[in-house]
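User: Could you check the structure of this?
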Amino acid sequence: MAKAFFRLQKFLRRTQFLLFFLTAAYLMAGSLLLLQRTRLVIQQGSRGTSTNQALPVPDGMAGIVDPRTLQNPRPGPRLLVGMDALQEPALDQRHSPRWLVSRNSELRQLRRRWFHRFISDQEPMQTAGFKAMKHTAEHKGTYMGCFSDDSRERTLKGAVFYDLRKMTVSHCQEACAERAYTYAGLAYGAECYCGNKLPAAASKPEECNSECKGEKGSVCGGVNRLSVYRVEELRAGARRRRNVIYRGCFRAPENLTDTFPASLIQPNLTVEMCSEFCSKKEFPLAVIRGRECYCGYPTGRFSLHDGADGLLCSGMHNASSAAEGKYCLVYQTPVQDTRCTDRKFLTTKSKVFVALSSFPGAGNTWARHLIEHATGYYTGSYYFDGALYNKGFKGEKDHWRSRRTICVKTHESGKTEIEMFDSAILLIRNPYKSLMAEFNRKYAGHLGYATDRNWKSKEWPDFVNSYASWWASHVLDWLKYGKRLLVVHYEDLKQSLIPKLREMVEFLNVTVTEDRLLCVENNRDGNFKRSGAKQKDFEPFTQEMKDLINRYILTVDEALRGRNFSGLPREYVPR
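Assistant: Sure, the predicted structure tokens are below.
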């Protein structure tokens, strides 16, 4: 019996060793295969970067587009012979009319690789909600205690900032001080709230137990709890950094007292005195007429849309001048207009799945900012961008098919990707501007500029070769496969924000008030202006690039008119 047991034990040991050896061999073989495939994909991607495909253009188009043809385009797109964008001669036998499908597939894969590489490289560099500020280990403000925070009726609602990665007590304090607030409150370890009134309901100190995302060992509130600091001591130093913006001269409304909630009459009134008074009252506008100072918001009665000649406001501080008090000076205070800053997810799943589609660099993030503040609902994204999530785009982490967001950002094209959506807002921007914006984003993030070295590298011509055709094919695909489209030109949105934004909101089947739209206009830039040194009179496009892009512009213009949409703005050409 013992002998049989010994043989069985010996057999099992050999079997165990054999299984271990086979498993190791299997894993090694799999690893080698994976490495081989990865190398193949990289090689194919590098080859795809420098190739280009033809787009349809009208007959006889051999050089730069004549801008007059945008006014009278010929009906029916024709196929231009295939050509290499910048270097090779015509290759009329190489490509068929089916180039669009294969080209889009290749470029989508290229885009995804660049996008994920960029996110991993750039995310640690992004800071949301604030301009870059010097971090200080000591908290200069006076700690007032832990307070309850009711999201439905906040006391500190003068300004709201998010930094879901690098929030510190000092960041919040300095941001509130620069905007002339008295108190700074932190919650959830990442949210900053400013105001001039101390919250009424105090909480136990231990209930503020969330560590600051960007400062270990420091407390930044808790769940529905605010760590509140008084920052008045910082305001004197921050005052010289505050930005009071002159909005212009306007005709005064008939009844200023009814139009503006707060007022002050002061002999020898100055702009600084009026701005400081309105800031303490938490109003974004300071209005001066003689010795009178009024505070309020842009409203239907006083929309700031019809400015008057500045000469009518000259000598405003002289009581007998300024056209007998019919005109007033308007200034933007450092205070944020908070009538449109509240946002949330949809309470029930949307029945209509809406895309916010654009070519990269066409202003999609800015459009999301406008839509979120106009509707009060978060927007989603087909991708995940940690930098945008840190800026308060909470829909970034929500699954793009959850239907809990008002619309979903996408740069995708192609039949399958487009037909997933029931309708779409198609945002189009001048391809010259789009290409430069996307190249800047690729090398310097959402708010930076690429360096001279980047622009002069070989990657810029390769980038134009690959992305210029994508700009056109993206629009053509959505025109072909989109079920219900609203075409919005970035330039029109920038120039006529409220009419265009109202059109977009109605397309999303949301009803908003005029005052909310005026609030969005007052906060139109958000945190999306690029910072850093911008090159003046910089022209990165060669003549060959211009010839190529102008052909694509004409093609897209003709396709839009063929679908009964308005054509591209005239400013797109010539270059």
